[in-house]
User: Fold these one by one.
Assistant:
Number 1:
Amino acid sequence: MKKVICMILAAVMMLAVFAGCSNGTANDETKAPDAVVTEGNNEAQVTEGAKELSGNVATDGSTSMEKVIGSLGESFMNANPAVNFTYNPTGSGTGIKAVIAGTCDIGLSSRALKAEEEAEGLVGTVLAYDGIAVIVNPENPVADLDLETIAKIYTGEITNWSEVGGDDAEIVLIGREAGSGTRGGFEEIVEVVDLCQYRQELTSTGDVITAVASNPAAIGYASLASVKDTVKAISVAGVTPSEDTVKDGTYLIQRPFVLVTKEGAELSEAAQAFFDYALSADANDILVAAGVVPAN
């Protein structure tokens, strides 16, 4: 009988040990999924942190900023292929209105904001500085003019190239349309606001360059970053327009390139990322390559 009881007790003890082992295994198995879940959460956090940027970035405004904004947009999309970046070259005035209307993320202006625009809640952030080149046809022998002479030409006081050392030909004045940032910058610096006797008022920097390139008697102005070898940029008061002379301030006809946003209006994640990138040191080489001087 004792032998039977001992055998039963031994069996019970073995079952208890087995149960304990089983519980230990079960606990281990329970922890393993926890570890996997935790690891999975970490991976999700990493994935979330490295989440691919996507969405749209719409810019609108200055045609003078085409080369600059195009280069920045291309670089940004290369780094963020899921982002759709667009640039609508409508002119500074139209781009500023687009920000007010909420039809674009970032406006582009090649002039500083006016007080009445700031009063509407607009904020201008200077991206870079650009020289406004005074351009003539490559056949024109005139290579230098001072500000006073340029003013006299554009107001119609001087009407023939022979009066400034050129050929005997009537000067053809080419300029931009009203509201253009390039026109505003040029007229303010040369002090000829609303006094210019334009023969043609064109709606883009490219059109001005084309018009001057096709007419030996023409004179115009254009963003230094956009000037091509089809025209000749003359020196102003003996100073040639260049990145260096714009940077050191010796070239007199220069203006800011401005990113325009609306105070209190939060940008989308993609638009904010582009805005921050454009103003970062990482973008400086691109700005310099586009012919402008970075503000930062």
Note: Residues 130-254 form a domain with the D-Maltodextrin-Binding Protein; domain 2 fold (CATH 3.40.190.10).
Number 2:
Amino acid sequence: MKPKGPVISPPPLRGRIGVRRLVEDYFTAYNAARLQEACRLLAEKVLRPGVTVGVSLSGALTPAGLAGSALVPLIRAGFIDYLVSTGANLYHDLHYSLGYRLHRSRPRVDDTELRRRGLVRIYDIVFDSAVLFGTDRFCREALDDPARPLLSTAELHHRLGQLARQAERERGLRRPGLLAAAYRADVPIYTSSPGDSAIGMNLAALALQGQGPLIDVSADVNETAAIVYQATRGRGKSAVLILGGGSPKNFLLQTEPHIQEILGLGERGHDYFIQVTDARPDTGGLSGATPSEAVSWGKIDPARLPDAVVCYTDSTIALPIMAAYVLEAARRRPLRRLYRQRRQLLEKLRRAAARRQRSGEG
């Protein structure tokens, strides 16, 4: 019996080669092959018309500059429809919109000396502590509201994005940050743990003074579920791209159990699943949970497991490669502008849930 699959025989590398050819011809086995599968799945199936794409972010991606270099171009190309992120990624993204500079360093430095000099380290990234104080000041001024409105985190981040965009213009910055780009493209950004970042701490400081907005976490749960519910109506499909894991991963995936288990609406799960992680599945950590395990929760359509890829590598390696690949290989898509549609989508979900409840009572 002859083995199936292409013969592994990449040609000798030469001086110049594009990312697409590098991925397709030289990422032949192990996690390189999984990364190739992820790139091709994105370009050939996920980024097609009719597929709603949700992306989750964890880990310190924005301090490494990956928002402006990779995520923003994906948003502008119509490749990201909504986001779930740690608050820390959004907070550190603001540094760039405010014109602050972060610098390359090394992981093995004297942190006591850094502290004495007023410097802050994120692994091999360093910056002046004044960056934190200036960003905190921006957050408090942006969110100081005596009316204390009740907001979803999408509304909170839309407000921050609007003011970040204004700050970029005032400083003559041509490269927008993630929040500013999402604001312009009406891409809603949610955070699964609103208090777990400096943005949340600044909100808490305002709350001590009876100021600032209140966060409606139930609105986040329902809005994200409404986006996914609408995405899978008719011939539509839902895709998730998970960079890292943690709480943003679960929040992105729990949309389906919320629709099926809690609201009782018929669903089969997300259609496409791509995760980049360095976590093992056997240690009990959420980040290592496999797509097949997610099937048992109703998070992933069991019929679509061939369209599920897990690549065990560093997101800071995979994200630039995937972004460069799809920007070359996939056609741009019209912006979905889901932020503007939140209330409409939420009303559709509410009506569907009410119909289901009435039918169950009958």
Note: Residues 34 and 311 are 5 Å apart (CA to CA).
Number 3:
Amino acid sequence: MNVERKDLDAVNVQLVISVVKADYEEKVNKDINTTRKKVNMPGFRPGHVPASMVKKMYGTQILVDNINKLVSEELYKYIKDNNLSILGDPLPSENQKDVNFETDESFEFAFDLGIAPEIDATIDGKTKIPYYQIELTDTMIDDQVKTYASRFGSYSKAEKSEEKDILKVDAEEVGKENGIKLTDAIFSAQYIADAKIKKSFVGKAVGDIVTMNPSKAYDNESEVAALLKIKKEEIGDHNGDFNFTIKEITRYTEAEINQDLFDKVFGKDTVKDEKSFREKIKEQIQKNLDADSDYKFSLDARETLIKKAGEIQFPDAFLKRWAKTTNKELTDEKLEEQYADMINDLKWHLIQEKMAKSNNVKIEDQDVDEFAKKVALAQFAQYGMSNVPDDVLNGYVADMKKDQKAINNMLNGVMNEKINAIIKSTAKLEEKKISLEDFNKLLETKK
């Protein structure tokens, strides 16, 4: 077997692999003999079908399978042995000569390769990148205390209704013999848009009747339809008054700021008083703010280094062919819209690869486990779980690592963290204090 390399330009290479009979004949004959032993054919004992008949029936497919395997192995061996840094995957050349497996004994297969261009990934103390330090305020701590108090509150029955209470009611349309009748409908007066109507539900007791026109109470037709359990197009037929009979009043009461709440949030006896509780919350918020600052830094670092790399020649025609090959639903119009972003992603990937190589970055199993734990803890935190037991956390991580896609995402996450750490320690950080509100505005401008 022979491989001929043709350098079309700096970023496009064609490999032509020549296959002769001696390369595949022995293996093909062996596979035909193996197939012969398995074939059942009327008139012949099992395993005694003539090789000529087996070759006639299955020979071409056996030949194709063996040549495809040989060519694939030789293609990737050449890429590895010659240390070719390719983009995407090799593609059959558009100039591929016709091949006839029925008659030919020698074959040529041409493949197009997109070569990764050289890219400048140097970074030093002269490289300026902004780093935004978000200011932590007492208001943030106060708000988080309120959030926890609300999250760990409790429901109880009430005698007199307040605006935010949940009411269970029966409702009946006024003045219509076959009008709508509702049983055990649930709603809260706090979502009523009309202030006067909202007030009419406050201070009521079980058994009281309140007359309300839902079409006047709410600004949104969807809310009216949901309350009356009808379709929006039916609202016009039921836009009069309804009598609401209150059957039950349920009130949600926020948790008291005491040891019981401290234990529920951070685990038993982790904190002992409100001051320690607020300090623990402060640490928690600071950790989240630091993560947000690092995220913004990663965006700015990427933008800075991509800009520094400048204009780079890419195998554009090849990459567009490859993109359409891997995504059959991708149209030419959509590809053109997305191509600039695709190139920036490639630039950043190449920059990261070069920095990882020059800094001897390695990813260990422990790195992946620690990253997975951070992801898991962040997901638990969304549900108010800040004191997750180790066995639960480790089990969750183990489940995550069963999914190859999740593993790939974690590997990318670890690599991003390591590269960002290198950039942060090498570049000149222009530290800027900023309020959370202004910081969020900065993120919005990036979208």
Note: The mean pLDDT is 92.
